[in-house]
């Protein structure tokens, strides 16, 4: 039997003679392990430089740097890395640490993890994050939904069932990361969103008709007008490449599906994006590019940003989504903030009319809104919120 | 009866939950291609049939979306894809990428 | 075709408009159902309001319009609505001076001949006092004006050049996109040759919803609005899509009820189901969603597309191939990729 065809040689520019082992998903290039790893890191660094994410030294090797004073991050700045223990955030933490060292960004990197309170799922992933902490030697802070909102996801699902739990979790997590970052004194946040995520988000926003989100979702930096801007350094990295990078550098990560299964609709969109990637890989980057080009026409009405009456978070309504959802949980009106129903509308009108002294009913110590019945509790909650710098 | 060759099959990235053990040493028929191995996996190794679509497509002719296939740590796309002939002592790795991070 | 095919689960329901027994559902079976007369009226209204919203025919001049007929149910529907309009069968008269263009895409000589014969029959039944031309999509290969003759299929001599160009494209997604672009170029050529500045095409909501997602995946997100809404102003002509709000289903039922389905031309399209293209995936995706009862998908996609535009506005010159994207060099990046996948033939063409 003849020997099977071996792999082609590494296509790295520096003339490496190793056999190629990895086929880069983004552009099909064929590279050996070390060259692939270096290539991946260079890609992320290039994204960072081209988008003015960090202020880089003039004499940084290989790239012509625009020495701009308006770059997203400054030397010495504390940056929180949203760490879930999964592949994206593990790779993000490792690459950020690596680039911080190699290119001397001078950043103070810290890991920030959120505990949603899902038994059996989050416990394990937090172990993975703990491993990251030890291996990468980065400080770690963990914040739980229970601390912030008085509800764990297990409690929430027990109350509302498994239908809209992702709405709750998504909204809560977003605020949790912001609050957590403030708690550790970070002024910027980076998350591990990758190209596949971005492409999927663009698609989902078109399918849902969410033009406001569509306009913003491909921005590599978001929330600059608020208190905690966030960036996505892995924005142009394909998920497959992230996995291969983790494998090549023997990075351990956590991978069980959340037991509260994701909604079916997003599943269809995800399959579509995966199929696209297989048939026409460029479609992933083109979807992102489409999102980048888009803005809403002037004549279309758009909501304006205000601050939540209860907790001061950014919102386009009177109450931010998290407070609305908590209100719903505490009063038993679980459609509130999730569904548009006559009943919900009535409650919202009632809430807007009620005085601040009336409690949200969570029974003290842990509610995120400042409307507790007891004055002392009120004071304590307000102090807590102040600690979180809101 | 044709002879068999020893290979190691490694399940990673979430795929290990579909089978008894993450790393398994098995015997497969000589001159099997990767395509044959997929059917072998479906018929002999998968214990959680309900979630088999995480690893293989409906007729086990291809891996599922988001699954990277490696032979001795080399992407099969750099070899002959599903026609690659498996040799004795090869390690075939299936890495699922389907989980969030 | 049986009328009972469309009347599932409607026992006892009353028409939402008039209280008679309901016989047909709208696009979302959970939201609306109509009796026969109201259904027909609903469809007609959608057609008329699409046109009147944009005030396309307010001007006394420039009423001349090329009406494209491709033999499909949607094409037949469009032709019929124009016929109605001229005969003042529906209310206010639609002031349009149509010229019919039968657009042929088959390449077999015998099939083309059959089309020509079929058109002769059709001309006796509708739009009898109107000019009819038959042209092949290969007319896109002409660089100058085309002299159109009335009785034959124009452009057949360019078919080899056309098929060569398409075959030279190695990427299935780009080949289909090129086909679409060439079809538009053909309409542009013919409009220019006939000195007509408006062109009506029979693109329906199902076509346009798919097109919107395809273009999103091709990187043309900023140009969705002109591509899938009623009017699309190019540099020298206006593309009009009067049936952009109607689904194939609504059109099929209408055609059946009004006996228009006798006017179809049978084109044998070679649909390649093994196709590995973005367009095939988009079609499968939308069909899956509709099978799973997400009926408002197309509607939402089109509505979203109509509300967004390119951040850079309309400044800058347009891509010379697709004519919608703003391009710094002569081609937008998507069209550059299309050209690069065509082994030289496209460059010569441009």
UniProtKB/TrEMBL annotation, chain A:
Q: In which pathway does it act?
A: tRNA modification; 5-methoxycarbonylmethyl-2-thiouridine-tRNA biosynthesis
Question: Which parts of the sequence belong to the tRNA(Ile)-lysidine/2-thiocytidine synthase N-terminal domain?
Answer: 79-274
Q: Where is the composition biased (Basic and acidic residues)?
A: 379-390
Q: Where is the signal peptide?
A: none
Lineage, top-rank taxon, reads Eukaryota
Sorted keywords for this record are: ATP-binding, Cytoplasm, Nucleotide-binding, RNA-binding, Transferase, tRNA processing, tRNA-binding
Q: Where are the transmembrane segments?
A: none
Q: What is its main location?
A: cytoplasm
Q: Name one Pfam family in it.
A: zn-ribbon_14
The segment annotated Disordered runs over 371-390
- Stated family: Belongs to the TtcA family. CTU1/NCS6/ATPBD3 subfamily.
Which protein, by its recorded name, is this?
Cytoplasmic tRNA 2-thiolation protein 1
* Organism (species): Caenorhabditis remanei
Q: Which gene encodes it?
A: Cre-tut-1
UniProtKB/TrEMBL annotation, chain B:
**Which cellular compartments is it found in?**
Cytoplasm
Q: How is it modified after translation?
A: C-terminal thiocarboxylation occurs in 2 steps, it is first acyl-adenylated (-COAMP) via the hesA/moeB/thiF part of the MOCS3/UBA4 homolog, then thiocarboxylated (-COSH) via the rhodanese domain of the MOCS3/UBA4 homolog.
Q: Which BP terms does GO give this entry?
A: protein urmylation; tRNA thio-modification; tRNA wobble uridine modification
Q: Name one GO cellular component term.
A: cytosol
Mind telling me where the Glycyl lysine isopeptide (Gly-Lys) (interchain with K-? in acceptor proteins) cross-link is? Answer: 101
Q: In which pathway does it act?
A: tRNA modification; 5-methoxycarbonylmethyl-2-thiouridine-tRNA biosynthesis
InterPro entries, per the entry: Beta-grasp_dom_sf (IPR012675), Mopterin_synth/thiamin_S_b (IPR016155), Urm1 (IPR015221)
UniProt keyword list: Cytoplasm, Isopeptide bond, tRNA processing, Ubl conjugation pathway
* Signal peptide interval: none
Question: 1-thioglycine occurs at which residues?
Answer: 101
Q: What does this protein do?
A: Acts as a sulfur carrier required for 2-thiolation of mcm(5)S(2)U at tRNA wobble positions of cytosolic tRNA(Lys), tRNA(Glu) and tRNA(Gln). Serves as sulfur donor in tRNA 2-thiolation reaction by being thiocarboxylated (-COSH) at its C-terminus by the MOCS3/UBA4 homolog. The sulfur is then transferred to tRNA to form 2-thiolation of mcm(5)S(2)U. Also acts as a ubiquitin-like protein (UBL) that is covalently conjugated via an isopeptide bond to lysine residues of target proteins.
UniProt similarity note: Belongs to the URM1 family.
> What name does this protein carry?
Ubiquitin-related modifier 1 homolog
What is the species listed in this Swiss-Prot or TrEMBL entry? Caenorhabditis remanei (Caenorhabditis vulgaris)
From TrEMBL, chain C:
Copy the pathway line from the protein's UniProt record: tRNA modification; 5-methoxycarbonylmethyl-2-thiouridine-tRNA biosynthesis
* Protein name per the record: Cytoplasmic tRNA 2-thiolation protein 2
Q: Where are the transmembrane segments?
A: none
An example of a Gene Ontology BP annotation on this entry?
Answer: protein urmylation
GO cellular component annotations, sorted alphabetically?
cytosol
Instruction: Give the lineage.
Output: Eukaryota, Metazoa, Ecdysozoa, Nematoda, Chromadorea
Q: Which GO terms describe its molecular function?
A: nucleotidyltransferase activity; sulfurtransferase activity; tRNA binding
Gene3D superfamilies under this entry? HUPs
């Amino acid at each position: 039997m003849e020997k099977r065809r071996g792999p082609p040689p590494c296509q790295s520019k520096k003339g490496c003679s190793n056999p190629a082992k990895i086929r880069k998903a983004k552009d099909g290039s064929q590279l050996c392990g070390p060259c692939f790893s270096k290539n991946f890191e260079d890609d992320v660094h290039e994204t960072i430089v081209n988008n003015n994410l960090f202020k880089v030294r003039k004499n940084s090797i290989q790239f012509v740097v625009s020495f701009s004073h308006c770059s997203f991050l400054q030397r010495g700045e504390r940056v929180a890395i949203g760490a879930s223990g999964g592949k994206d955030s593990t790779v993000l933490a490792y690459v950020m640490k690596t680039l911080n060292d190699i290119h001397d960004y001078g950043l103070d990197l810290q890991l920030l993890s959120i505990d949603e309170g899902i038994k059996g799922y989050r416990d394990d992933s937090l172990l993975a994050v703990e491993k990251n902490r030890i291996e990468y030697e980065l400080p770690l802070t963990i914040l739980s939904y229970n601390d912030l909102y008085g509800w764990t996801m297990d409690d929430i699902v027990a109350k509302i069932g498994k239908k809209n739990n992702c709405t709750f979790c998504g909204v809560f997590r977003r605020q949790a990361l912001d609050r957590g970052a403030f708690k550790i004194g970070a002024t910027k946040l980076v998350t591990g969103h990758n190209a596949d995520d971005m492409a999927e988000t663009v698609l989902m926003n078109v399918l849902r008709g969410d033009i406001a989100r569509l306009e913003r979702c491909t921005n590599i930096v978001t929330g600059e007008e608020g208190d905690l801007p966030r960036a996505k350094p892995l924005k142009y990295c394909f998920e497959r490449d992230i996995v291969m990078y983790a494998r090549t550098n023997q990075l351990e990560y956590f991978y069980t599906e959340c037991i509260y299964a994701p909604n079916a609709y997003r599943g269809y969109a995800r399959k579509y994006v995966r199929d696209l990637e297989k048939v026409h890989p460029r479609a992933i980057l083109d979807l992102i590019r489409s999102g980048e080009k888009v803005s809403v026409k002037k004549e279309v009405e758009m909501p304006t940003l205000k601050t939540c009456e209860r907790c001061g978070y950014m919102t386009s309504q009177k109450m931010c989504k998290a407070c609305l959802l908590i209100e719903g949980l505490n009063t038993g009106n679980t459609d509130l903030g999730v569904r548009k129903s006559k009943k919900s509308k009535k409650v919202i009108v009632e809430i807007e009319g009620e005085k601040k002294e009336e409690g949200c009913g969570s029974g003290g110590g842990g509610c995120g809104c400042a409307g507790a019945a007891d004055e002392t509790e009120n004071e304590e909650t307000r102090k807590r919120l102040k600690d979180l710098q809101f | 009866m044709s002879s068999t060759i020893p290979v190691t099959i490694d399940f990673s990235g979430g795929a290990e939950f579909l089978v008894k053990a993450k790393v398994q040493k098995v015997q497969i028929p000589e001159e099997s291609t990767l395509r044959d191995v997929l059917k072998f996996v479906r018929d002999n190794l998968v214990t959680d049939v309900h979630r088999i679509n995480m690893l293989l497509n409906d007729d086990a002719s291809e891996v599922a979306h988001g699954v990277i296939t490696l032979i001795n740590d080399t992407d099969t796309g750099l070899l002959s894809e599903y026609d690659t002939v498996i040799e004795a002592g090869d390690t075939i790795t299936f890495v699922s990428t389907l989980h969030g991070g | 075709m049986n009328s009972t095919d469309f009347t599932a689960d409607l026992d006892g329901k009353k028409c939402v408009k008039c209280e008679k027994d309901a016989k047909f559902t709208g696009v979302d079976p959970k939201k609306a159902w109509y009796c026969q007369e109201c259904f027909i009226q609903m469809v007609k209204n959608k057609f008329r309001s699409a046109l009147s919203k944009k005030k396309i025919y307010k001007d006394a001049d420039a009423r001349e319009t090329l009406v494209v007929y491709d033999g499909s149910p949607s094409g037949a529907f469009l032709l019929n609505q124009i016929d109605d309009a001229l005969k003042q069968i529906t209310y206010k008269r639609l002031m349009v001076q149509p010229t019919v263009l039968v657009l042929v895409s088959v390449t077999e000589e015998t099939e083309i001949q059959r089309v020509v014969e079929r058109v002769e029959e059709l001309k006796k039944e509708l739009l009898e006092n109107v000019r009819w031309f038959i042209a092949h999509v290969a007319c896109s290969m002409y660089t100058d004006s085309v002299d159109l003759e009335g009785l034959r299929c124009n452009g057949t001599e360019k078919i080899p050049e056309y098929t060569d160009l398409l075959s030279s494209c190695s990427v299935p997604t780009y080949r289909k996109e090129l086909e679409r672009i060439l079809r538009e170029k053909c309409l542009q050529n013919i409009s220019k040759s006939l000195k007509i500045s408006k062109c009506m095409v029979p693109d329906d909501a199902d076509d346009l919803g798919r097109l919107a997602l395809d273009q999103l995946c091709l990187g043309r997100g900023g140009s969705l609005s002109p591509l899938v809404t009623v009017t699309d102003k190019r540099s020298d002509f206006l593309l009009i899509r009067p049936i952009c709000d109607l689904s194939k289903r609504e059109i099929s039922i209408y055609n059946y009820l009004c006996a228009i389905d006798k006017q179809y031309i049978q084109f044998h399209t070679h649909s390649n189901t093994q196709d590995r293209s973005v367009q095939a995936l988009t079609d499968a995706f939308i069909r899956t969603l509709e099978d799973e009862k997400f009926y408002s998908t197309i509607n939402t996609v089109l509505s979203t597309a109509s509300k967004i535009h390119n951040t850079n506005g309309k400044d800058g010159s347009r891509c010379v191939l697709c004519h919608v994207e703003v391009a710094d060099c002569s081609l937008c990046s998507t069209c550059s990729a299309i050209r690069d996948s065509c082994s030289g033939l496209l460059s010569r063409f441009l």
